Amino acid sequence: SFPLCSETRTDRRMKMLRFRSPSIRSLDQEILCTIRLLDDSEISCSIQRDTKGQFLLDHVCNHYNLLEKDYFGIRYVDPEKQRHWLEPNKPVVRQMKSQQPYTMCFRVKFYPHEPMKIKEELTRYLLYLQLKRDIYHGRLLCPFAEAAYLGACIIQAELGDYDPEEHPSDYIRDFKLFPKQSLKLERKIMEIHKNELRGQCAALAELNMLQRAHSLETYGVDPHPCKDFTGSTAFLGFTATGFVVFQGNKRIHLLKWADVSKLKFEGKTFYVIGIQKEKKLVLTFHTSTPAACKHLWKCGVENQAFYKCAKSSQIKTVSSSNIFFKGSRFRYSGRVAKEVIEASSKILREPPEVRRYAQFGQSRSYNSLSHKNLIMNMEPLVPALPSTNEYEETQQSPDGGNSALGVDLQPPRVSMETSNLRPQTPKPEDRLEEDDESSGPLTISELTYSPCASMLPTPVDDGQGGVDLLFSSPVQSPARLLRELHADPDIQAQLEAERERDRAYERTRQAARSRM
Q1: Residue 236 in 3-state DSSP?
Q2: DSSP 413-471
Q3: Among 254-263, 365-374, 441-450, the least confident range
Q4: Which of 7, 64, 82, 478 places its Cα 20 to 30 Å from the Cα of 155?
C-alpha cells in the first residue's frame, strides 16, 4: 500500500502544478504601458501583473532625473471616459479597466502653493508646462490683463526676444494659447512681449509666469462638473487653500481646509461638511455617475491630507460614511506639502540639465547674447493695466488637441542653462486680493468659467450639450433635494446633536437669568 500512497501524492502534486501553471505564466506576462508626458512626447515601459503604480511614477521621474516628484501623478481614463489618478500602492492591472496596452498621462497632481519654494528649475519647468495646458484648455481662467501677461511670458519663453526681422506682424497667431483668443488679446500679448520682457531667458520668463499664475483664483483647480441643490451647474475644485465652488464667472464658495470637517459621498451625492462663521455648514452636490462622485471624493481626501497635515504620520484612513462597514475607505499615501518643501530645501546636487522642446526656432537676438548679459540688461516688468469688456466674442472653445499650442511641428531639443534667477514681483495693487469670508461672490473674469469638455475629470460630450446634459435624469426640485439631504442618517444625527447643544445652552441661560 505504501507505493500506492506515494503515487497518489505525486499525482496530486502534478494536478496542483497543472492547476497553478496558468497563473504563474500570467504573472510573468509583460504588459506594455505608454505614458504621455507634459510636452506630449511619450515614453514606454513593460510591467508585470503585480507591478504597482509607484513603479510607473518612478520610471517617469527617472526619465526626467526629477527629485521633487511628490507634486506629480499619473492619470488614466477608464472605458466610461472617467478619469482617475493611479494609486501608487496598488497593482496597475487591478486599477486599469481598459484593454492592453495601457495609455496614461503624467500630470501635476498637487500644485505648489508657493512656486518660489520649488528648489530645482526642472520642477518649475514641468509646472510651467502644466499651467500652459491649463490656460489652453480653459481651466486657468483669468482677466484680460492677466491673460495678456501670461501669454507674453509663454511667447518669451518659446521665442526669446522680439526680432522684427524674424517675426512678422501677426506672429502671435501661430501660437494657440487660449481657448478664446481674440485679435485684441493677441495685440496686447505682442505689446508686452516687445516692450516689457526683452532680455529674459526662458527660465526667467517661465518663473515670472508661475508667479503671476499662482495668484489667480483658478490656479490648481481641476474642475469637477456638478449640480447644486437648485439644479444649477457648478464646478467643484480643491486647491492649496481649500474647497472651492465656481458658478458662471464667480467663485461662490471658499471653505478653507481648517474648516472642512468631513468629505463624504453616497451614490451620486457629494457632501462637504464644515464650519463657517462659527456655524455648521453642509454643502451638497450631485454628480452624473457614482464613479464620478467617488473620484471627486478621493481627490478631496488626497488634497486635504496633502495641504492640511503637518506630517504624513498624521494621515488617517477615512470612510465615505460614519457607519461602520458602510461606504468606501481610502487613505492618501505619500508625503505632505510641508515635508516636500523641507526635503526640497535639502537638495544639494548640481541642477540637472533642462531640455526644452521649443515650438519654433529661437530668434537670433536671443541666441546672440549670453544668459549673464540677458539678466544684467533685464528691463523691469510693468504689469498690464486691467480694462473692462476686453474679450471679444470668438469661436467656441476647442475640444482639446494633443499639442498645448495647437502646432504639429516636431522641433529639435534645445538645452538651456540658468544662473541665480529672481522673479520680478508684480505690484500689490495689480494682484487679485484674497477675499475674506464676509465678502460676497468673487468675480474672477469677464468670461464664464467653462473648461474644455475633453479635459474634465468627468466625461462630457460638447457635441451633445456639454455639461448641461451630464445628468441623464431630470433635475430634482430643491425641496426634494433638501429632503434627501436631511434624510441622510449621518448628517441628521449631527444636526440633531447640534440642536440639542443649542437647547442645553438655552436652558442654562434661562436658569442663570431666573436666579438673577
Answers
A1: strand
A2: EEEE---S--PPPPPGGGSPPPPPTTS-PEE--SS-----GGGSSS---GGGTGGGGS-
A3: 365-374
A4: 64
Q: Which grid cell sits at 236?
A: 467643484
Average pLDDT, the chain: 75
Alpha carbon distance 48, 175 (integer Å): 41
Q: Check residue 320 and report its DSSP letter.
A: S
Q: Which residue has the higher pLDDT, 331 or 415?
A: 331
Element (H, E) at 262: strand 260-266
Strand 31-36, strand 102-108: pairing: parallel
> Which helix (H) or strand (E) segment is 331 a member of?
none
In contact, 349 and 340? CB cutoff 8 Å: no
In sequence order, the β-bridge partners of residue 233 are: 227
Q: Identify the CA nearest to 250 among candidates 435, 443, 434.
A: 443
Cα separation, 296 vs 452, in Å, equals 18
Q: What is the enclosing helix (H) or strand (E) of 356?
A: strand 354-357
CA 450 distance to own-chain centroid: 16
Report d(CA 296, CA 264) in Å as an integer: 10
The answer to whether 157 touches 209, Cβ cutoff 8 Å, is yes
Asked whether the beta carbons of 431 and 386 are under 8 A apart, the reply is no
Q: What is the pLDDT of residues 40-64, one digit of tens each?
A: 999 999 999 999 999 999 999 999 9
Identify which has the larger pLDDT, 143 or 367: 143
List the grid coordinates of 77. Answer: 481614463
pTM of the model: 0.71
φ and ψ of 254, to 5 deg: -140, 110
Q: How far is CA 304 from CA 1, 38, 298, 377, in A?
A: 68, 25, 10, 43
Per the DSSP assignment, residues forming a β-bridge with 90 are none
Edge-first strand order for the sheet with 72-77 is: 42-47, 31-36, 102-108, 72-77, 83-85
Cell 526676444 belongs to residue: 161
User: Which run of H or E residues covers position 501?
Assistant: helix 489-515
Q: Mean pLDDT throughout 73-93?
A: 93
329-361 pLDDT tens trace = 888 888 999 999 999 999 999 999 898 875 543
Residue type, 196: E
pLDDT confidence of 312, banded at 50, 70, 90?
Answer: confident
- pLDDT confidence of residue 474: 45
Helix (H) or strand (E) holding 153: helix 144-159
Number of neighbouring beta carbons within 10 Å of residue 328: 14
Give the H/E segment covering residue 2: helix 2-28
> Which of 404, 419, 458, 435 shows the shortest CA–CA distance to 134?
404
**Residue 397: pLDDT over 70:** no
Output the CA torsion sign for 230, 233, 238, 242: negative
